[in-house]
Every structure is written in structure tokens, then in C-alpha cells.
Amino acid sequence: MKLAMMSYTMSRDVKASEFDLAGMCKLARELDLEGVDMVSTYGRDSREIRRLLDDHGLKTVCHTFGADLNQANTAGRCAGLDAVKTGLDAALVLGTDKIMIVTPGKGGVSREVSRRQFIAGLQEAMPLARKAGITITIENFPGAASPFVVSSEVLEAIREVPGLKLTFDNGNVLTGGEDPAESFRKCTAHVVHAHFKDWDVVAAPEGMPGVDGRRYRGALIGEGIVDQRSCLAAMKRAGYTGYINIEYEGNQYPPDEATRRAAAYLHQLMDEIEA
Fold first, then answer.
1. How confident is the model at residue 253, as a pLDDT?
2. Residue 256 forms beta bridges with which residues?
3. In 3D, which of 78, 11, 77 has the Cα closest to residue 41?
4. What pTM was computed for the model?
5. Phi, psi at residue 60, to the nearest 5°?
6. Domain of 135, in residue numbers
7. Positive or negative torsion for Cα 158, 164, 165, 169
8. Widest Cα–Cα separation across the chain
9. 229 and 275 Cβ atoms separated by less than 8 Å
10. CA distances to 76, 163, 200, 226, 268 from 222, in Å
11. What is the domain-level CATH number for residue 96?
């Protein structure tokens, strides 16, 4: 298992045009992280990003972006499919073998309907990915309206969309009321990438509502309620050798400090599990 920089963690609170990509690369090297998950391209040319990563000895381990496939029919999904094509082209330039399409819910649309519509869109997108030689993944996405949170929902999509894989998100699984380590075990055969994050449970009106009825606020990995050790142990037993993004959605620490602290914490846990 290897830790990866997540550009989203570093860029959440800045305009895309002001995001310091070079600073992110320098921090990744400082922390001995080999890979970066590029969450969008921030309005930059993908070739420029690739040159910058190459100059710092970094590789793109995933390209993550949004594509509105949550529409009722193929005509409605045209813009989303165009976004998939653009994302696949960027992934090829960035040199990664996988993309992740984010799958939020939609106001006024039930989770079940959103799930069916996303599955139909992913079925339409899969031939594009096969032609490009790129793997499409989805993640356990949080929020009370999200169509894919727990393992059963993810596995439904994987059954219906041959070739679809999972970016396992241990924090988001918890918001669906499922134990993250157990969720990983159920999905092990389909996991090709991972996100680690953490949450605090808060009272309304704070935080984000989860499918399980609780409300969640972002916390630093190791300071919230997610059992990171059990997740790493389950992944170690399964022989997972891929990357784990360091994701932070809290506001207690600046993103660079949060990434440093989380990397140190996870490296320590990984060393203990290996011992």
C-alpha cells in the first residue's frame, strides 16, 4: 500500500486559477509520496500538468472529475458523456490508467432513480473507456441523496456495468451506516484505488446529512470516528498494493499541515500493521 497526494485536499479553498500545483508537487516529494490523484485539471493544459509532475518525479495515479450522467435518458446524458470523453483524453496525457467519475445525488430525485440513471450512463461511457484503455471507477459517495454509498449499491453498479471498478472511500462508507473494513472485504475484488478520510458526528444544522441519519463534519485522518487501523489491516490481509489518497475536508488545519499530519499518522499505522 502506498499513500498518494490528492489535489482536491490542497485546492478546496482556492480558485482553480490560483491553485499552486507546483507547491502541491513539492509537498508530495517532501512527504515521499510517489503519486497524485488529479481531481480536475484546474483549467490547465494536461500536457503542462504532466510536465510539472514529471519534473518532480511524480505520476498521476488517477484522474477524477465530474460528468453529469444522472439524467433520465441518453439525450440528457450527452453533455455528461462529452465530459467523460474529455476526461479520458486528459487521463491519457497525464499517464494514468484509471479515472474516477463522481456520483452525487440530485435534488428531487430519489437515490434509487439516481442509481439507475448513473448505471445507464456508465454503461454508455464504458465503450469509450475500453477504446482508450482506461478503467472507469466510482467511489462510495457521501450525502443523503447519494446513489452509491454502501457496498451493496456499489456492487449493483459493478454487476450492471462490466469493467467498472471501485475507488474505495473508507470515510464515505461510514456515512451509510456500514463498517468500512467490512465494506472493503465485500468489495475487495473490485477495488483498484482508495480514499481515506475521517469525520466527526455533529448536531444539526452543522455538517452533512448521511444516509444513516447522522450528520458529519470533516476531520483529520486519525482524529475522527473512522477506524483507520481496521481498514488498513483488512486491505493488508487482502493483498491490496495500490494507492490510498490522503483526503481532508475539515477546516481545523491548513491543507498542507493536514496532509503532513495524516501522512505521518498513516505511515505509522502501516508500519505497525506490517510488523
1. 96
2. none
3. 11
4. 0.95
5. -80, 120
6. 2-274
7. negative
8. 54
9. no
10. 42, 33, 11, 8, 11
11. 3.20.20.150
